[in-house]
Amino acid sequence: MTNQESIINKTIIFVKETLKGAEGGHDWFHIERVYKNALLISKTEDVNGFVVALGALLHDIADSKFHNGDETVGPKMAREFLSALNVDDETIQHVVNIIENISFKGGNIKQKFTSPEFNVVQDADRLDAIGAIGISRCFNYGGFKNRALYNPEIKPNLNMSKAEYKGSTAPTINHFYEKLLLLKDRMNTETGKLIANERHKFMLQFLEQFYSEWDGKA
Q1: pTM of the full structure
Q2: 109 has a pLDDT exceeding 60
Q3: Which alpha helices (DSSP H) does the chain contain, by range?
Q4: Model confidence pLDDT, tens digit, residues 7-25
């Protein structure tokens, strides 16, 4: 086993332990799916596989949603963990940059960092937010926050600031329009775009069926 393989294995153990008992849409299985997505996308991209692996595994080590909105906790935890494993400073900084910039912060917010590795990890994470898994995670988190499923009187807000987006208490269905349906056109890689297109179609079918049942037509 190479040193990099050993570090990746130790990272997996660390993430599993850290996220034990986490909300179902942001638990180890979410990380594992993103990790697998990232490895798949990496096959068609010219990237540093070590950075991609660490970025995918650590991208949600401390999601700000579960730390009173504090976006510094995750990057700090990742930096301390990787430093303890004697990972080189350049790799650590790259991984931290990925963690700091990966999340969707509202439709009008532009990210400040990019790299081929970042593009792969962000696509991998976004793929887990759409399709059947994305729908499941969306409603799981809505239930976790005790949000309404749908309220026809509360319309989606596509012009939220970062603070408004983070503090939103809107019904779960609104999140499809405020985030999930926007992701298809924000994918970075060709592989990501291909997979996203299929998952996007599934979400549209789901919404059509949802509204039909809501209106008593199906």
Answers
A1: 0.90
A2: no
A3: 3-18, 28-42, 49-58, 73-84, 89-101, 116-127, 131-144, 162-167, 172-178, 190-214
A4: 999 999 999 999 998 888 8
Rounded Cα gap, residues 74 and 61, in angstroms: 6
Predicted pLDDT of residue 83: 97
Decide if 98 contacts 55 (C-beta within 8 A): yes
Angle between helices 190-214 and 116-127 (to 10 degrees): 20
CB 134 within 8 A of CB 110: no
* Residue 69 backbone zone (phi > 0: left; psi -120 to 50: alpha; other: beta): left
- For 63, which DSSP code? -
Residues 156-167 as b or e (16 or more Cβ within 10 Å = b): beeebeeeebee
Q: Which residue has the tokens 């990742």?
A: 78
Residue with tokens 């008992």: 21
CA dihedral 108, 104, 137, 15 (to 10 degrees): -170
Averaged pLDDT of the chain? 91
Distance CA 36, CA 41 (A): 9
Q: Are 121 and 38 in contact (CB under 8 A)?
A: yes
Q: Are 111 and 179 in contact (CB under 8 A)?
A: no
CA distance 117 to 97: 10
